[in-house]
Amino acid sequence: MTSSLLSVRGLKVVVGGRHILHGVDLDVAPVGVTALLGRNGAGKTTTVRGILGLVPRTGSVIYDGLETNGLTTHRIVQRGIGYVPEDRGIFASLTVAENLRLAERDPDPAYDLVHELFPELRQRARQAAGTLSGGQQQMVAIGRTLLNRSNRLVIADEPTKGLAPRVVTEVAVALERAAQAVPILLVEQNLALVRRLADHCAVLADGRTAHAGPAAELLADADKSRTLLGVGRRADTAPAPVAPAAPATGGDH
Amino acid sequence: MSTVVLLSVTGLGLGALYFLVASGLSLIFGLMDVLNFAHGALLSIGAYATWWAASHSFGYPLALLFGTAVGTLASVALELGLIRPLYRRPREQVLATVGVGLAVPALLSAIWGADARTFPVPASLGGTFTLLGATVPVDRLVLIGAALVVLLALKAFLGRTRHGLVVRAGVEDRAMVTALGIDVRRAFTLVFAIGGAAAALAGGLAGLYFGSVDPTQGSSLLIFGFVVVVMGGLGSVSGAAVACVVVGLVQQFANYYSTAGLGDLSVVVLLAALLLVRPSGLTGRLA
């Protein structure tokens, strides 16, 4: 991989006295999609939250050439990061339009792109976001990251989790489109989607980086995939991009 | 009939005072998870500042403005100097606000004495008017009008401005607001300023309502402020508005039609009954 946009070294996180991350190393390429993989409980979501400063952490997180240790979350995000959290992070009592407006940082937000990818959001602009379906809420969450053209990295934490296959396809198209303009760190269990989108990947196991390299190479290696990801069959034979190849169970840390 | 009208208007006036205390309290807790026991002290600061200015020939409107400004500054200083350094230490935060809540009345007592000071009520607001056969003090209308203006201003702020949007979102999920690149601490200071302004305004108007100011007035009103906040639903200004009307009216009617002092007990019973039926308050926010 060429010089990284995001470089994480020895990331450690302790939550409530429990060690969640023991030293995660991760590089996100300045172009394309980098996937962060691992079984449930491996520490993927905590890694993302650590990168964003949402949990206290030690180690080094260099984003765009700047060490972010000591910066508050909003300062890190203001340097050009869009974030789609695992639980979507929708403000339920706010309308769709208000949810989007809250994410505006650019003087000229890219509503044209958001509405082109998710026309439903225009139609439902005045609807309370809490009354949307899971898929529609995910559209809002992704739409918020696409609004700012100044974003230089999008971090999407399991954006297809719990979604219907049709919506997964829509999300995949949106991410594919976004990836043309901005690098993405994609936390995902849907290996078909990873295979379709990701160039590179890192695999976490028990709060450590267990593997890093080209995504296609890992997914083509059935034994390695089985060992690292717990996938029972060859991932490259899975139909793209719908049903999750790995069992989609409860939330990560 | 005239008694019912008088009790209603007086109850609404008292409810208006409760609303001015509770609206800021509710926003502060909803956004910041801070139980601000110093809120009553802000009311007392506003009350004494208004009283001091009115006693020095400022004229009541200007005195009220002065008192509100002093209370707002005190609130901002409290947030920046004491609450902000303790954001990640909620227990110490509670202790600090309790400390301020005790220290300010003591300080006021030390400076102006523990006895109540007569509030210089202007002649234009000291009179009465007739409504449906009842002779109603004018100041009740001033209180109700002020609370309505504050309610409408808060609704406009929360519903139509970006800062208001940040506050509403922050009440739901503070961490996610920061993850959108927004400095939620600015919203904290703003909400403290708004809450302090409303409390100080309540202090200035309380002088009008009770005809005097004393160092413990803020603490007494704070208790009912908390009752209104819990009844209305934490973080809900509209809920606080509805709850303060109910509390004010119940208190007045219970005091008049039963033994004096039973009004306070009635309010507590009402709160307990409501929480049994709707644990999350009138508006459904978790209490």
Automatic annotation (TrEMBL), chain A:
Alphabetically ordered keywords of this record: Amino-acid transport, ATP-binding, Nucleotide-binding, Transport
Protein name: Branched-chain amino acid transport system ATP-binding protein
Entry GO MF terms: ATP binding; ATP hydrolysis activity; branched-chain amino acid transmembrane transporter activity
Renumbered residue ranges of the record's region Disordered: 232-253
Gene3D superfamilies associated with the record: P-loop containing nucleotide triphosphate hydrolases
Keyword Nucleotide-binding among UniProt keywords: yes
Chain intervals with Low complexity compositional bias: 238-253
GO biological processes: L-amino acid transport
SMART domains noted in UniProt: AAA (SM00382)
UniProt-listed InterPro entries: AAA+_ATPase, ABC_transporter-like_ATP-bd, ABC_transporter-like_CS, BCAA_Transport_ATP-bd_LivF, P-loop_NTPase
Domain ABC transporter: 6-231
UniProt-listed Pfam families: ABC_tran
Family the UniProt entry places it in: Belongs to the ABC transporter superfamily.
Automatic annotation (TrEMBL), chain B:
Location in the cell: Cell membrane
GO BP: amino acid transport
Membrane topology: Multi-pass membrane protein
GO MF term set: transmembrane transporter activity
Record's keyword annotation contains Nucleotidyltransferase: no
Cell membrane as UniProt keyword: yes
CDD domains assigned to the protein according to its UniProt record, in alphabetical order: TM_PBP1_LivH_like
Transmembrane segments: 6-27, 34-54, 60-82, 94-114, 141-158, 187-210, 222-249, 256-277
InterPro entries registered for this protein in UniProt: ABC_transp_permease, BCAA_transport_permease
GO cellular component terms listed in the entry, alphabetical order: plasma membrane
UniProt keywords, alphabetically: Amino-acid transport, Cell membrane, Membrane, Transmembrane, Transmembrane helix, Transport
Recorded family membership: Belongs to the binding-protein-dependent transport system permease family. LivHM subfamily.
Name of the protein: Branched-chain amino acid transport system permease protein
Species this protein is from: Streptacidiphilus jiangxiensis
